[in-house]
Amino acid sequence: MAGISKTNAEKDTEKLLENRVALVTGGSRGIGRAIAIRLAELGAAVAICGRDSEKLRATADELHERTEGVFWQAADMTRADDVEKFVSAAEAKLGPIQVLVNNAGIGLFGPAHEKSEEDWDRVLNTNLKSVFLVSRAVVPSMIKKGAGDIINISSLAGRNTFAGGGLYCASKWGVQGLSGCMAEDLRGYGIRVSVICPGSVATEFSGHTAKDASKALQPEDVAHAVEAIVTQRPGSFMSEIHVRPLRKS
Predict the structure, then answer these.
(1) pLDDT band, very low/low/confident/very high, at 13 (cuts 50, 70, 90)
(2) Which CATH number does the domain housing residue 180 bear?
(3) Which domain holds residue 220?
(4) What is the Cα–Cα distance from 229 to 193, expressed in whole angstroms?
(5) CA–CA separation, 87 vs 80, rounded Å?
(6) pLDDT (tens digit, 9 = 90+) per residue, 85-104?
(7) Catalytic site includes residue 168
(8) CA 100/CA 42 separation, integer angstroms
(9) What's residue 100's pLDDT?
(10) Which of 60, 168, 194, 200 is catalytic?
(11) Residues 6 or more apart in contact with residue 47 via CB below 8 angstroms
C-alpha cells in the first residue's frame, strides 16, 4: 500500500484549527508564546494579552507570519474590567472565542510564613483568580455555539508539594479543583475543560526551576499538549495531562 507523502500528510494536519478563534493569556513570552504560535500554525486566529506591550507586539508580529487573524492588547487578567474589555475587543475583531488557554501565571517562592498578604494576593490572583475571570467572560459565547475548549495551564506543583512552594502550590491546587468542577458544569454544553500540569519548563519564569536547564521541558512541549487537546476527536476530552522531562535533572 502506498504511504502518504510527507507533503500530503502536512497538508492534512497543518490547518486543523482553520476558522477557529483562540485566546491565550500571558501570550507574549515563554509557554504562552509557544502555545499561541502553535495554534496560529494550526490555522486559528489568535488573541493574546499580557502586561508588556513591547513583548506582545513582538509576538503578534510572529503570529502575523502564520495566520491572518491576530489581536493583542495589554491587559491585567486579575481585574474584571480589564478582562471584559479585552474579551469584548478580541471577539469584535476575530469572532467568538472557541479555544481559551488560561496560561497567565507567576511564581513567588519561599516559606509561606515569611510571605506577606500582598505576596499571597499577587500569586493567587494571577494564577487562580484570572482563570475564573477569563473563563467566565468567554463561556457565554461557547455555550451559545454548543462547543469550545478551555485549557488551564497548571503545574505538577498542583499535585505535589515542596519546601518553599506554599503560595505557588496553593494557587495551582486551586486551578486543579476549579478545572475539575468547570469540566462537570460545562460538559453538558459541549464544552471541554482540560488541565495541563507541566514540570519545570526552561523559560524566563522566576523562582523554582530545574537543577539542570538542559534537561528541563521546553515551552514547545506544553504547546504540543495543547495541540493534542484541541485536535482530538469530538465526543471525548482529555481531562488532565501531566508533562514531564524524559531525563530527571
Answers:
(1) low
(2) 3.40.50.720
(3) 17-243
(4) 10
(5) 11
(6) 999 999 999 999 999 999 99
(7) yes
(8) 15
(9) 98
(10) 168
(11) 21, 22, 23, 24, 27, 70, 71, 72, 73, 86, 90, 93, 94, 97
